Amino acid sequence: MNRKKKVIETQKAKIKKKNAKMHRSNKPRYISKAERAKMEAEALQAEQSAEQNQTVTAAESEKPTE
């Protein structure tokens, strides 16, 4: 009886582990405070460069062409 119980328990444990691997969490990855600050700084820099590009293109379009 004990041997049969042990075999069944090991099989159940293997199935449980397999199921746990299949169902990963949908929780988003943790981003540290320093990484968030860095990403925010990069976003601001990209936004500023986009604004500068718009002003440059607007200035070029207003130039009279000969």
Structural overview:
The protein is mostly helical and 66 residues long. It is built from 2 helices and no strands. The protein has helices at residues 2-22, 33-62. The longest helix is centred in the last third of the chain and has 30 residues, at 33-62.
- Major beta sheet, specifics? none
Can you give the mean pLDDT?
A: 87
Count of domain modules: 1
Please state the structural category.
Answer: mainly alpha
Number of strands: 0
How would you describe the oligomerization state of the chains in this entry? single chain
Terminal CA distance: 99 Å
Described by the principal axes of the CA atoms, the overall outline is rod-shaped
Secondary structure tally, helices: 2
Proportion in helices: over 70%
Poorly predicted segments = none
Short description:
The chain has about 70 residues and is mostly helical. It has helices at about 1-20, 35-60.
Could you name the key traits of this structure?
66 residues, mainly alpha, 2 helices, 77% helix
Summarize the SSE layout with pairings.
Blueprint: H1 2-22, H2 33-62
